[in-house]
Amino acid sequence: MRATVFTTGRFRAKLLQPETDNAAVDDLSQRCADYALMLTGQPPDRDASAAFFAAVPDGKTLADMWKLGVFDSAGKLVALADVAREHPAPGTWYIGLLLIDPTVRGRGVGAAVVRGVKQEAARNGAVRLMLSVVTENERALKFWKTQGFSVTRDLPPKRFGRKQHARVELVANVRC
Ligand SMILES: CC(C)(COP(=O)(O)OP(=O)(O)OC[C@H]1O[C@@H](n2cnc3c(N)ncnc32)[C@H](O)[C@@H]1OP(=O)(O)O)[C@@H](O)C(=O)NCCC(=O)NCCS
Predict the structure, then answer these.
(1) Most CB contacts within 10 A, which of 31, 108, 117, 120?
(2) 142: CA distance to ligand 1 center in Å?
(3) In angstroms, what is the span from residue 147 Cα to ligand 1's centroid?
(4) Quick one: 64 exposed, middle or buried, by C-beta within 10 A (0-12, 13-18, 19+)?
(5) Which residues span the domain enclosing 36?
(6) Is the distance from the beta carbon of residue 139 to the nearest atom of ligand 1 less than 6 Å?
C-alpha cells in the first residue's frame, strides 16, 4: 500500500511508483495537453510517465525525490507534483512540476498541494521552496505569487521540445 505523504481537504498526496502508477500518470498527462502544448509546442508524449519518473536533478537520486500523486476521494489521480528535497542546497526543496487536471483547476487543489509541501518541508527542517516558471505561463506565475512566492532572478532561456522559453526563478519561505 502506498504511503500517504499528506492529506489536504478531500485530497490525499501519495508517493507514486513507476511499477504501479505509469498508466495513471500517462492518462493525467494526456488530460493536461494544454500544458504540454504551451511548454513544448507539441502534444504530451504517450509515455510522459517515463520522463516524470526519470526526472532527477544532477547529484540527486530517486530516493531524494517525492514523485507525488494527488488522489480525490474516489481514488482518481487529479494532480502530480515533483519535489526534490534538499535541492539545490540544504534547507531548500525544489518543486520541479505541479500539474492539476484541467477539470479541477481553480478549485484550490494547487494551493492545497503547495500548503502540504510547505508543511512537510518545514516539518523536515527546510526553510524555503524554490521553482522556475517559463514567463509565457502567466497563469502559473500569478498562481505562485498568490502562494507567497517571489521572483528572485531571471534564469537563462531553455529549450523545451520545439520552443525556447525565458524563465524566472521563484522562492517562498516555508515558515510564513
Ligand atoms: C497553475 C496551477 C498549478 C494552479 O493550480 P489550481 O489548482 O488551478 O489553483 P488553485 O485553484 O489552487 O488557485 C489558487 C490561486 O491561484 C489563482 N488561479 C488559479 N488558477 C488560475 C488561473 N488559471 N488564472 C488565474 N488565476 C488562477 C486562483 O484564483 C487562486 O487565487 P486566490 O487564492 O487568490 O483565490 C494549475 O492551473 C495547473 O496545473 N496549470 C497547468 C500546469 C502548470 O502551469 N503548472 C505550473 C508549472 S510552473
Answers:
(1) 117
(2) 8
(3) 9
(4) middle
(5) 4-173
(6) yes
Grid cell listed for 88: 539545490
Checking if the pLDDT of 146 tops 70, the result is: yes
Q: Supply the CATH number for residue 91's domain.
A: 3.40.630.30
What number of CA atoms fall less than 13 Å from residue 156's CA on the CB side? 2
Task: Note the pLDDT tens digit of each residue in 35-93.
Answer: 999 999 999 999 999 999 999 999 999 999 999 999 999 999 999 999 999 999 999 99
**Cα distances (Å, whole numbers) of residue 9 to 31, 57, 74, 92, 116:** 23, 31, 13, 26, 10
Ligand 1 centroid vs 145 CA: distance in angstroms?
10
Q: Is 152 in the pocket of ligand 1 (CB under 6 A)?
A: no
Phi, psi of 104 (to 5 degrees): -120, 15
Ligand 1 near 121 CB (within 6 A)? no
Q: Given this model, what pLDDT does residue 131 score?
A: 98
The residue whose CA has the least distance to atom 44 of ligand 1 is 140
Report pLDDT digits (tens) over 88-109: 999 999 999 999 999 999 999 9
Q: Give how many domains the chain has, as a whole number.
A: 1
